[in-house]
TrEMBL record:
Pfam family, one: Ub-RnfH
Family the entry assigns: Belongs to the UPF0125 (RnfH) family.
UniProt xrefs under HAMAP family: UPF0125_RnfH
UniProt lineage: Bacteria, Pseudomonadati, Pseudomonadota, Gammaproteobacteria, Oceanospirillales
NCBIfam families membership: PRK01777.1 (NF002490)
Transmembrane segments: none
Protein name: UPF0125 protein SAMN04488129_12212
Length: 97
């Protein structure tokens, strides 16, 4: 058995759920086990099923294949609200006025 955490945050609140999972559990499976839908009922459940995932800030390319190790913190990433390049361009345009 492995001790892990699953983390998700909105701008106004966050939740870190500690779990004990069997060896061989993938990052995606851990998110499903964490039950984040109940903690964030205002979000559609697809948010958690299809979200990008990472472990300690490093994005996972294939979260369905990454097997967890004891102590891992799986992070569920929210989709970007605005493209970072577009945000920089808008800021530069405002500053140059």
């Amino acid at each position: 058995m492995l001790d892990i955490e699953v983390a998700f945050a909105l701008p106004e609140r966050q939740r870190i759920i500690q779990l004990v999972v069997p060896e061989g559990t993938t990052a995606r499976q851990a998110v499903a086990m964490a039950g984040l839908e109940a903690a964030f009922p205002e979000l559609p459940s697809v948010t958690f099923r299809q979200a990008d995932l990472g472990i300690f800030g490093k994005r996972l390319r294939d979260p369905e294949a990454v097997r967890l190790r004891s102590g891992d913190r799986v992070e569920v990433y929210r989709p970007l609200q605005i493209d970072p390049k577009a945000a920089r361009s808008e800021r530069a345009a405002r500053e140059n006025r």
